[in-house]
């Protein structure tokens, strides 16, 4: 052992001597301290297999070690505290280490080694240059804290994704990343935050190219997102005209895709309105029956309460000849009433369950429409964000590929496989063709490589081998794809990422059942908990073009383990398959046969080990046909109304409730009351003084007002159901009133309900109340002791969050709409109520301080993009500091349940704000935000556009999906810089207010109530207007020549109602209308 150490020491001495000779240093004087004067050391080629003797050179500034093939470890540098430049290149170093004490290091060159991970770099705070090219690095990482890094070279590695590590390098100027495996244009968005970057290389004649650098619109994408770039891929691109052209191109593309998205959203709104109309039609009969039965029920209850021997005899004499004054006693009469009441209640409960089922069907149908629409919109956005390198083409029966896919799916469906799920057939709704340039190039290259290494050298033989090795296989839901947008990610990036992740390989099948069985089983188990009997009815299949090459048959019990799977670090070895020898590198699939299947001779699965050999080409949206009818009778998967009413009973009989209504006793309604005078009230209640009236039942008396009702100071219970009341102005200052039933009226507001301090029960169901915030606000202010509220069957606007909102506002409430409020509901409601107020904490959590908008192809608002991607949050010095608000430029408060715009006065530099999907009913509080350029107030409850007059710098305004009725001229004329306006799905009757918006380029005003075609004349002065959408208005649907009329008078338009205006249309319009 000692001899080995001596030999090792002698070997190191020889290496050190060689180092001294190479650098002209006297080796004999080295131990006398002469090495302290040495600042630079260089060692080229062989002779230095390990780093030794560095302790003799403590003041070394530069160390260069090149071409040492056997050097595998960075070591012995602990004493080089003054080292500024280190070269260890063309060696075999596997790991970055041993640099902890080199705190002054500025330039580090470790190219052409065997480094697989970027680690142990964060302590090099002064590092400016880092070269790690020609290694085997797979991901960019470990750069935290390198705030002075200016140049990075990662060329010729195995990097497939850029990630967000580069965002942490504020001074990065030069980045070389050629010769890697980066594919996605979207991945280049990670460069946006690196604002100092001016030199970028993604393809290079020495290192080669990334796949992304070969796709269409690559340069345009770079120039738009990185306008500061001066050198790209070795070329000087410091040209303003190039970048201006890119900006113009992207702007046009965004306008085009935004128009298409708006068209899809409008179509979705129309379908949802169709679903709503269908639901209303289905509920009309049961609701009418409920109304009639409830009227009888309340009449019977009133009769029961007021029954007496004399009254009952009188009534029976009127109502039935089978009873007389002496035979009917009070008890028997009450028993009859009770029996009839119980029957009526049972029938009402049955009808309410039918209405509930219709509502569930409505929710399901609505979700189907929204899901398919959102899926289509996401595909459009993917087209835009990938620069058109991923496109989706919807097919029809005239397309050969559509018919081929349709027949393929039907031929691969075996009903016997689905017996356990009661599935009898399959119906195809839509087939979409996927055009992915990047995946196709990767597929073709990998197949070409495989064929080039095969034994078939002849070109014709290779073609035959290619044709025989191509399969079209299916894939569907998997745990890996059960992520957000997992299916879309599969269509964009292919199977490579999924095949390489830790969750396992991707299973492909040549039949529908095997590809969809995991989804079926998962949803079946989930349905058992939720009570849905058929949750798997609708699904999607991806049809992929697969090069299977030579495959090996595996047993079923081996299918779960990736046997013979080539490991990344393993050495390729041969295996015998079909009497042929193939490297593991290319045998990337295993065929798995399932002997339990009836079609076992035909049905097989493949396990994907190389995702590049799988090319997704088609997406099939389908519906399983089951023995059980669809739950929803309203609308099918793609918006076509269904004539089948499913399980909803058909009430075509004359009077389906006659069996109950004809039961004894037959109570006649009381005479109508034209007004409520004191004499009428005394007679109605059979009392001598109004002070004695504590309960007043005015059910079904034909009342339109409750005048003088507030004179009843001792009134505790008031029933005014089934009248014609439109408001409750007379129910004011009633200190004793504890119960009020105003159901089945025509109430449009609760504003008159005031000063009822002890009112604990309120029933306003079956009225016409619409505005949740106003009505609940009235109750909260004037009915402070309310414990029970019934407000069902009102046409509430934006009722999705009604229950939570109401519970949060009415703190004393215990029962809402017949259901007790749980502690969990109370807690959730209180949290949401607290979050609905805009406070300084809310602003701090949802704001940014960027001075420039991020360049992005996203169609989302600037506020949304900055809030999602920017890291520039406001800096707060202490709790009392409010000056940070002056630096806020971006505010994103979408979907926060906000009911009022407040506490925005200090945001004087606010430029981009979004308050979409809230409960705001008034535009206010923005008077000091005069720098605002973009404002999104869509999907709220706004009825007027007051509050915008001072926002003179506004360029983009979105107030779609509100209750706006007019665009006031005195407000809109101040928005002189407005370029984009979205007012779809409102109730606007005129666009006159836009006549002075000369900068307007895009106007979306579909689904409003503009009826006069001459409204178009108000837009003739808007010469910058490129895109106009007025579809869904009466003016667009009532006139056959509407399009020609608009094109003729607005000849500057480039697109109308979602369709481009052609020169032929302009000529036709001129010939038709020009005379």
Automatic annotation (TrEMBL):
Region called Disordered, residue ranges: 304-325, 557-576
InterPro entries assigned to the protein according to its UniProt record, in alphabetical order: Leu-rich_rpt, Leu-rich_rpt_4, Leu-rich_rpt_typical-subtyp, LRR_dom_sf, SDS22/Internalin_LRR
Record SMART domains: LRR_BAC, LRR_SD22, LRR_TYP
One of the Pfam families matching this protein, by short name: LRR_4
Biased composition (Polar residues): 307-325
Superkingdom, natural source: Eukaryota
UniProt name for this protein: Leucine-rich repeat-containing 9-like
């Amino acid at each position: 052992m000692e001899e080995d150490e001596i030999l090792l020491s002698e070997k190191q001495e020889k290496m050190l001597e060689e180092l001294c000779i190479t650098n002209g240093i006297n080796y004999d004087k080295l131990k006398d301290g002469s090495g302290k004067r040495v600042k630079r050391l260089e060692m080229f080629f062989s002779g230095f297999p390990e780093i030794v003797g560095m302790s003799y050179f403590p003041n070394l500034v530069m160390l260069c070690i090149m071409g040492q093939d056997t050097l595998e470890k960075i070591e012995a540098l602990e004493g080089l505290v003054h080292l500024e430049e280190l070269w260890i290149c063309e060696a075999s170093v596997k790991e970055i280490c041993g640099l902890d004490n080199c705190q002054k290091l500025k330039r580090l060159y470790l190219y052409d080694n065997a480094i697989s991970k970027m680690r142990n770099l964060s302590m090099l705070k002064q590092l400016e240059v880092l070269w790690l090219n020609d290694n085997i690095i797979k991901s960019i990482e470990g750069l935290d804290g390198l705030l002075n890094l200016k140049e990075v070279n990662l060329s010729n590695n195995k990097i497939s994704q850029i990630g967000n590590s580069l965002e942490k390098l504020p001074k990065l100027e030069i980045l070389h990343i050629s010769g890697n495996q980066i594919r996605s244009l979207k991945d280049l968005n990670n460069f946006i935050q690196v604002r100092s970057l001016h030199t970028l290389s993604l393809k290079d004649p020495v290192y080669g190219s990334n796949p992304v650098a070969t796709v269409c619109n690559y340069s345009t994408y770079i120039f738009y997102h990185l306008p500061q770039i001066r050198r790209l891929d070795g070329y000087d691109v410091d040209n303003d005209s190039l970048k201006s052209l890119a900006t113009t191109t992207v702007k046009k593309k965004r306008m085009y895709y935004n128009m298409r998205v708006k068209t899809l959203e409008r179509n979705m709104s129309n379908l949802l309105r169709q679903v709503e109309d269908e639901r209303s039609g289905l509920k009309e009969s049961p609701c009418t029956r409920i109304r009639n039965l409830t009227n009888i029920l309340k009449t019977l209850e009133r009769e029961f309460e007021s029954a007496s021997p004399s009254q009952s005899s009188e009534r029976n004499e009127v109502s039935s000849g089978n009873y007389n004054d002496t035979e009917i006693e009070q008890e028997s009469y009450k028993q009859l009433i009770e029996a009839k009441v119980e029957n009526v209640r049972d029938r009402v409960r049955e009808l309410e369950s039918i209405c509930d089922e219709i509502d569930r069907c409505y929710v399901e149908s609505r979700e189907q429409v929204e899901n398919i629409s959102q899926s289509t919109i996401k595909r459009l956005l993917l087209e835009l964000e990938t620069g058109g390198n991923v496109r989706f083409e919807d097919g029809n029966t005239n397309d050969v590929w559509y018919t081929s896919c349709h027949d393929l799916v039907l031929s691969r469906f075996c009903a016997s496989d689905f017996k356990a799920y009661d599935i009898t057939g399959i119906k195809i709704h839509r087939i979409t063709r996927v055009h992915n340039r990047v995946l196709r190039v990767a597929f073709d290259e990998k197949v070409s490589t495989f064929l080039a290494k095969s034994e078939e050298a002849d070109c014709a033989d290779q073609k035959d081998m290619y044709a025989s090795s191509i399969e079209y296989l299916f894939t569907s839901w998997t745990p890996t794809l059960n992520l957000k947008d997992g299916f879309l990610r599969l269509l964009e990036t292919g199977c490579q990422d999924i095949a390489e992740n830790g969750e396992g390989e991707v299973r492909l099948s040549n039949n529908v059942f095997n590809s969809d069985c995991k989804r079926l089983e998962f949803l079946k188990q989930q349905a058992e908990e939720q009570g849905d009997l058929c949750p798997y009815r609708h699904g999607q299949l991806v049809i992929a073009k697969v090069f299977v090459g030579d495959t090996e048959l595996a047993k079923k019990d081996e299918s779960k383990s990736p046997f013979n799977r080539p490991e990344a670090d393993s050495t390729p070895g041969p295996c015998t398959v079909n009497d042929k020898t193939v490297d593991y590198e290319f045998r990337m699939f295993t065929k798995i046969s399932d002997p339990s299947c009836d079609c076992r001779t035909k049905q097989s699965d493949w396990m994907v080990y190389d995702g590049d050999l799988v090319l997704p080409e088609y997406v099939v949206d389908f519906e399983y046909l089951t023995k059980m009818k669809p739950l929803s009778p309203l609308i099918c998967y793609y918006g076509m109304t269904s004539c089948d009413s499913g399980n909803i009973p058909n009430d075509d009989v004359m009077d389906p409730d006659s069996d109950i209504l004809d039961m004894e006793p037959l109570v006649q309604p009381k005479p109508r009351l034209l007004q409520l005078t004191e004499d009428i009230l005394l007679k109605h209640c059979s009392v001598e003084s109004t002070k004695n009236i504590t309960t007043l039942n005015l059910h079904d008396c034909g009342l339109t007002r409750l005048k003088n009702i507030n004179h009843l100071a001792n009134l505790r219970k008031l029933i005014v159901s089934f009248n014609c009341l439109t408001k409750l102005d007379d129910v004011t200052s009633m200190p004793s009133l504890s119960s009020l039933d105003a159901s089945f009226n025509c109430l449009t507001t609760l504003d008159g309900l005031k000063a009822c301090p002890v009112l604990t029960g309120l029933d306003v169901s079956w009225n016409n109340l619409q505005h949740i915030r106003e009505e609940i606000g009235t109750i909260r202010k004037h009915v402070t002791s309310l414990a029970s509220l019934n407000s069902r069957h009102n046409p509430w606007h934006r009722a999705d969050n009604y229950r939570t909102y109401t519970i949060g506002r009415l703190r004393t409430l215990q029962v809402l709409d017949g259901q007790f409020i749980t502690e969990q509901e109370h807690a959730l409601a209180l949290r949401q109520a607290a979050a609905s107020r805009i406070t300084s904490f809310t602003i701090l959590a949802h704001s940014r301080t960027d001075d420039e908008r991020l360049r992005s192809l996203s169609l989302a608002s600037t506020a949304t993009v900055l809030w999602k991607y920017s890291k520039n949050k406001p800096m707060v010095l202490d709790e009392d500091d409010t000056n940070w608000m002056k630096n806020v430029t971006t505010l994103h408060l979408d979907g926060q349940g906000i009911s009022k715009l407040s506490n925005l006065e200090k945001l004087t530099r606010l430029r981009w704000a979004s308050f979409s999907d809230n409960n705001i009913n008034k535009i206010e509080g923005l008077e000091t935000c005069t720098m605002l350029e973009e404002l999104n107030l869509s999907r709220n409850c706004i009825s007027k556009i007051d509050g915008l007059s001072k926002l003179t710098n506004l360029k983009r305004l979105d107030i779609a999906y509100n209750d706006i009725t007019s665009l006031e001229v005195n407000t809109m004329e101040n928005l002189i810089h407005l370029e984009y306006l979205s007012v779809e799905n409102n109730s606007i009757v005129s666009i006159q207010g836009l006549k002075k918006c000369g900068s307007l380029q895009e106007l979306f005003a579909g689904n409003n109530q503009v009826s006069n075609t001459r409204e178009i004349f108000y837009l003739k002065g808007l010469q910058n207007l490129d895109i106009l959408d007025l579809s869904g208005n009466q003016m667009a649907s009532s006139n056959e020549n509407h399009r020609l009329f608009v094109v003729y008078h607005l000849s500057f338009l480039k697109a109308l109602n979602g369709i481009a205006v052609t020169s032929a249309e302009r000529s036709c319009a001129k010939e038709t209308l020009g005379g």
